[in-house]
Amino acid sequence: MLTTDWKTLALQAQLIFGKSQSRTLELFPFDSDETLEAFEKLPSAIGKSVTDFGSPAKFPVDKYYETLSKKDVQITEADPVELIQDIKSGKYTCVEVLTSYFHAALIASKVTNCVYEFLPDEALKSARYLDENKDKLVSHCPMFGLPISLKEMIPLTGHSVTHGSLCYLDRVVDYNADIVNILIKNGAVPFVRSTNPQSLMMLECESFTHGRTVNPFNSDLTCGGSSGGEGAINGIHASPIGLGSDIGGSIRCPSAFNGIYGMRTTVGRIPTSDYFSCQMGSESIMSVTGPLTRSLDTLELLMKTVVQEKPWKIDPSLTSIEWRNHARKTPYRIGILKTDGVVTPHPPISRALDIMFEKLQSTDNIEVFEFEPFNHQKAWEIISALYFEDGGDDTRKTLKSTGEPMCPQTEWILGKDSVKRLTVEEIWKWNLEKQKYRKDYLKHWLLFNNTEGNTPMDALIAPVFPGPAAKHRTAKYWGYTAQWNLLDYPVLVFPVTKVDLTKDIPIKDYKPRNEMDEFVYKQYDSPESFENSPISLGIVGLRNSEEQLIDIMKLINRQ
Amino acid sequence: MLTTDWKTLALQAQLIFGKSQSRTLELFPFDSDETLEAFEKLPSAIGKSVTDFGSPAKFPVDKYYETLSKKDVQITEADPVELIQDIKSGKYTCVEVLTSYFHAALIASKVTNCVYEFLPDEALKSARYLDENKDKLVSHCPMFGLPISLKEMIPLTGHSVTHGSLCYLDRVVDYNADIVNILIKNGAVPFVRSTNPQSLMMLECESFTHGRTVNPFNSDLTCGGSSGGEGAINGIHASPIGLGSDIGGSIRCPSAFNGIYGMRTTVGRIPTSDYFSCQMGSESIMSVTGPLTRSLDTLELLMKTVVQEKPWKIDPSLTSIEWRNHARKTPYRIGILKTDGVVTPHPPISRALDIMFEKLQSTDNIEVFEFEPFNHQKAWEIISALYFEDGGDDTRKTLKSTGEPMCPQTEWILGKDSVKRLTVEEIWKWNLEKQKYRKDYLKHWLLFNNTEGNTPMDALIAPVFPGPAAKHRTAKYWGYTAQWNLLDYPVLVFPVTKVDLTKDIPIKDYKPRNEMDEFVYKQYDSPESFENSPISLGIVGLRNSEEQLIDIMKLINRQ
């Protein structure tokens, strides 16, 4: 380690960020001095130190659009899939597109603190290479020239991987993650590494490597986590697509809180096994990679591109399931989960479920009905015991080695009763409970509403979180996401609406079912607290049904 | 538990067997008194008690054919796939076929002690049901009327599952394993439960629930294990096909030692998760189900039948990979592994490898070359640490509860240095080593002999065990099978030849590389010790390539 003093390391982390920002401004200067001046004057979510959370604007997204030039907006607001066509057709060069996205990211970073590190030199080199070899490469590169953002925990040659803990600041890796190599080979240009929180086991985005990332739509709210930087930068449209990872909601919460698409993939579908985190080697519950993006077509493009590369020939933990094109003729049968029976969703979420129910009733080729959950409380009991088989010691040691303080959310999750060191026999016991629960749930799923000779339910629309984007340091109920990690079901998060100040009135005199339900209920004090927050839901399918979820989503969007 | 005295339980286990044998003789009497008399006079591998190993004939298979009636031979020696056609066409009824197989199993059981329990009542009921409902069922049942044997550890309603340990003799289960239900649905008739050894972690077949199962081709040799009863009963042709399980060689050793086909499937391809064993809930190394049979076509039929039932809709641990028909046009590239670099194979195995090398050189659509192994010693180091994460305590406790003595082979495996209780961090460490080794090996496999722009190696022909069927209590080197469990690669075992008394002369003055190599070397004292033993090899493929292995095998067999 460079030093065992966390404060020195925190300064160095800031320096890494600062240098990469200066270099970006040098290689990709704003088009005018006016823009630069406006950029410098922006209310900043980046504080003077990593314990200072800055003074962000209430609605950072407004500042973003006020600052970004028209030319940059034209590029960054184009649908990324169309943008790739524009590059291929010669309307833009890869360097031009990259330049606009760097401008967007600089501004987004300032107003939300979503960037851990810019990658100006590597990205410029890649974009130039693509431009110079366009004739040769363009036909083999479905993502030709598309910038891509990467969660900080994803290994990238020549950069340190901290996953939010300062003691790893000098762990500079000498390889790219397999998925990064695949994307680069297919024309993508990594341009930004996005922020992730301390320990990664947090549905928010606070760490001593970067401070706090705020929600672009309301800075009083969290951007979610742990792929929090990805949520914010994609939510504000300063990245066309990014990669996150998810072991308990870490792709889905940031997607939901920022009103974008995000997919928790099935374990073994796309490469993840070469990332860094705490508890490495723990296999009872596995983390997965997935895309976060505002564009469903771009999400599909990325998934298809990665799977078509047969990544199982690189990473033996993957399953050789080709990308399957869906041309379904019989109607999809879709359930709606109104509550998990443990924590009641807030009014805007319930409204979103009603919107979807109504919409689906009038969507061609879809049948919709209400789904009854099956013992979701038990799922949390099992998964929370298996997250930290060492009782959290690895995480604690990681922090202790530099004296790095524990963030309140880290302290909270490690302090839970369910988190304790397990014996071999206890691990086995919980694994058996997991196996049994998975089997019981599958049976429930396939039999549900299947009395009249119907085909089984294809997918389920469910909350991703009990409320809109949470107030800082209050995102404590993981049940609506961790449920599907335990079952290893893929989930596609999608935006539905925004908090409505007149419609989303708190429920009065609600009688909570339990302590967590009460805590969550109390958070929703008024719609004003959540003004402008996106409201999202997720569509859940059985294992390895990613293609089907995308197909259903397209049907719904066409409506 | 019924009692804590293992001797009382051992008597009860014998009683279960004895009753089921009497009932079989009652429901399926031999065709003549002569046959019955001959049966009663057979040299028996079933002792007076479970610690008595009887007095089997030197070559049990000869006694078997001397005893079995012509009519029974006609049925039991037919290729099972053709037999199904004969039932479908009306040449035989299901009950007739079952009757002959029961006669064969009664004799096989006597001469080798391969049957744990006969299933006369259930099987008769099933066969009658199929006969009575033939018109309705026959077109939906690809395995219509085919008897099937099941390793004792596979749950079957109304029967106890001991997996070789007496303390579980009263664990009567109330369900069939999923795969059993699938096979029954498709017309198969479970008729026999076959023997398995104490603790299942043994490449032989000794337990205090049944005694010792001997090799039908030479009773001085083991039938292999842990699916030992399956190996013997299928090797002698008294079952058309059976199911075993494999975590370190338990399908492949019995297949090799008995000269039949046997397949270690990829984890997640066909149902296994509802079986019983010790160390349940341990997920670092997973056991898999697979077929053992003398008929490649029947093996393919079973695999295809199970996968086409989409078993992932019953068992969520399975992967939704359909059965893929192979119609490969470019040549298969096949490596030959002459030694794993740890233990040198015995002369008959080396001869079998040479036979195959020569044969493949003249096989259409196949290219053959020698393959260099990649650090197989390391694989054993990793897998042997992960087999018993509890240091073997569960197995020890299982025995201790009834005072059941430890079989020498159980004692040997539990006494190895690598077997010790692991902490959470040690489990993680070994899992990481496993992940790294898997990735390195895949890279080695795909790059091997690939310098001139060749396509990668498709499959590898390798020893399954360093020698022919081992002498009792000497099958101690697991390296040639456990290697592929660690990598989770499927392996199809196939018969090549038999020990040749003139050709298979021991190597003189061999200098062993290590202690295990020396032990193994010394076992092969003369070809006479292994007279009549089958010699088999295995063909290994990358994960989920079961169809391809079968396709290659068909090509080879056609030669």
From TrEMBL, chains A, B:
The keyword Transmembrane helix does not apply. The keyword Hydrolase applies. It holds the Pfam family Amidase. The active site is at 151 (charge relay system), 226 (charge relay system), 250 (acyl-ester intermediate). Keywords: Hydrolase. One of its GO terms (molecular function) is hydrolase activity. InterPro entries: Amidase_dom, AS_sf. Substrate binds at residues 200, 226, 247-250. Residues 96-549 form the Amidase domain. Belongs to the amidase family. This is Amidase domain-containing protein.
